[in-house]
Design goal:
4-stranded antiparallel sheet; 17 strands; Umud Fragment, subunit A; mainly beta; LexA/Signal_pep-like_sf; single chain; globular; Pept_S26A_signal_pept_1_CS; 8-stranded antiparallel sheet
């Protein structure tokens, strides 16, 4: 028969194991990789609603936002390295405190402008080449249950939601897909000059993205300080089109472990 002392020791060992596991998980999340679910369609078709990835925190070093809830007890950035144009980055919104994921377009000192839907960096066009049509089912997506926006407006539930797709090439040679839905006021913008110590981000789904083209005062992202960068998204680990990852029939195995470009 098990004595009360043995039961007490067993319970204590279980509690200690759980505490150690939580501490190890916390250290892993703080120093190395942070899990991130894609909640919206702003980065289609590079990232889809329901993609799950780990954010590489070692890519740019560490700031106060490297810790959960932004509680790291230091300011600035340590062991920092500069991000590269074209990186897909998770960062902390400078005002709302929410985590966003976008593509890095503008470096400190750059001049960024959109003209007729075409990106210009320091006066140089980032050319777009047609790359067919991105097609997805018009249905509720992810836990929020949002519906995709379609270039062929008026699609019924279950129909094909289409968007024109292009390959855009940045001045440093990085190429990636961008989508077009409709003419937008953000297709033509003033020139944005990126301040020192800040970065300019845009979504690949250009007409459905809250990003640096809109100032923070107007509920946009604006320029993002270096210390707000959390890490680089390198690879999709898992993907589910349904409202829950438990809905195995909505899994997208073709996206498992897919490299993010």
């Amino acid at each position: 028969m098990t004595s009360k002392a043995e039961k007490k020791d067993g319970l204590l060992e279980t509690v200690k194991t759980i505490v150690y596991a939580l501490l190890i998980a916390g250290v892993f999340r703080t120093l190395f990789f942070q899990p991130f679910w894609i909640p919206s369609g702003s980065m289609k078709d590079t990232l889809l609603v329901g993609d799950f990835l780990f954010v590489n925190k070692m890519a740019y070093g560490y700031s106060q936002y490297s810790c959960p809830f932004g509680i790291c007890p230091f300011s600035g950035r340590i062991l920092g390295s500069e991000p590269e144009r074209g990186d897909v980055v998770v960062f902390r919104h400078p005002v709302t405190g929410s985590d966003f994921i976008k593509r890095l377009i503008g470096l400190p000192g750059d001049e960024i402008q959109m003209r007729d839907g075409i990106l210009y960096i320091n006066g140089q066009e980032a050319p777009q080449v047609p790359a067919g049509t991105f097609v997805e089912e018009f249905e509720k997506q992810g836990p929020v249950g949002s519906l995709p926006q379609c270039e062929n407006a008026g699609v019924g539930l279950g129909g094909d939601c289409e968007k024109s797709r292009f390959v855009e090439t940045l001045p440093n040679g990085v190429s990636h897909h961008v989508l077009n839905i409709r003419p937008s006021r953000l297709d033509d913008t003033p020139v944005y000059t990126v301040p020192e110590g800040h970065y300019f981000f845009m979504g690949d789904n250009r007409d459905n993205s809250t990003d640096s083209r809109v100032s923070q005062n107007a509920m946009g992202v604006g320029f993002v300080p270096y210390e707000n960068l959390i890490g680089r998204a390198d690879r999709v680990m898992f993907s589910s089109a349904g409202r829950s990852m438990l809905y195995f029939w909505t899994w997208r195995p073709d996206r498992f472990f897919e490299e993010i470009e």
